[in-house]
Specification:
Structural class: alpha/beta
Mean pLDDT: 92
Strand order of the largest sheet: 7-6-8-9-10
Oligomer: single chain
Helix content: 25-40%
Number of helices: 8
Order of helices and strands: HEHEEEEHEHEEHEHHEH
Distance between the termini: 42 Å
Shape: globular
């Protein structure tokens, strides 16, 4: 009876989002950047990963979310980090933030064709391909009571043979490349590949010139940027993949 009583006392703990408001984010949390007020002169050399691309040839400046660590160093150059947590994209070039409001990204034909299959149930095998465990930890948070991604039919599974796709974190080190290859090959088709975090998308601070990243090894269906991406960003990305968000 003490267990039942405690459950009644605690009541419902799962967040209301997306049907209701999103949970409060920490004050120091940084979301989608706005580079409208970027000062190119102050921005030179300020980004540790080269995410800021300046108008050297007269074009517009842009910020590559796939490289961005959200460290805030570029704020001194006029970049403003908003509270927008929906950062995922279907295409790599859609991660480039340019001055002005963001335009809606069209849904690729492949994703539109897969949505009827995975919309109500998507099982993922998570592969830590040499990560620091930050992206892995924020992904696993989604399985807890407050987030409960299972209510959307989302789940992490122990075997790739039970999975509908692979969620990859980490920069895909040489020692993890074979394990990732075996996991990918063991996942039945049709399947999706999700690149989670700056390391997986671009190499982040571990980038090496000429070294194949995940995007050069397998077709990526969804990019979720961040270092690490907030659990809300990851969940929003997965629901966008499934067509569960407006």
């Amino acid at each position: 009876m003490s267990i039942v009583g405690e459950r009644l006392r605690q009541k419902h703990r799962t967040m209301a989002w997306p049907a209701g408001p999103a949970p409060a984010l920490p004050d120091r949390w940084r979301g989608r950047p706005d580079i409208t007020g970027l000062d190119p002169d102050k921005a030179r050399g300020v980004c540790p990963t080269g995410a800021l691309r300046l108008p050297e040839d007269g074009g517009d400046a842009c910020l590559d979310l796939g490289r961005c660590l959200f460290c805030g160093a570029c704020e001194q150059a006029g970049v403003v980090f908003t509270r927008e947590f929906r950062l995922a994209a279907f295409r790599r070039d859609s991660l480039f933030v340019r001055p002005g409001p963001a335009e809606p990204e069209p849904v690729p034909d492949r994703i539109a064709a897969l949505r009827p299959t995975f919309r109500r149930s998507l099982k993922l095998r998570q592969v830590s391909a040499g990560g620091c465990n930050a992206c892995e930890a924020d992904s696993n948070v989604l399985t807890t009571l407050a987030w409960d991604m299972g209510r959307f039919g989302l789940a992490f599974v122990a075997s790739p043979r039970h999975a509908d796709g692979v969620l990859v974190t980490g920069p895909v080190t040489d020692n993890m490349r074979l394990a990732l290859e075996k996991t990918y090959n063991a996942t039945p088709t049709p399947k999706v590949v999700i690149a989670t975090g700056a390391c997986t998308i671009s190499g982040g601070i571990y980038e090496r010139d000429g070294r194949p990243l995940l995007d050069g090894l397998y077709p990526v269906d969804l990019y979720i940027p961040g270092c690490p991406p907030h659990p809300l960003t990851i969940l929003a990305g997965l629901l966008t993949l499934l067509g569960r968000l407006d």
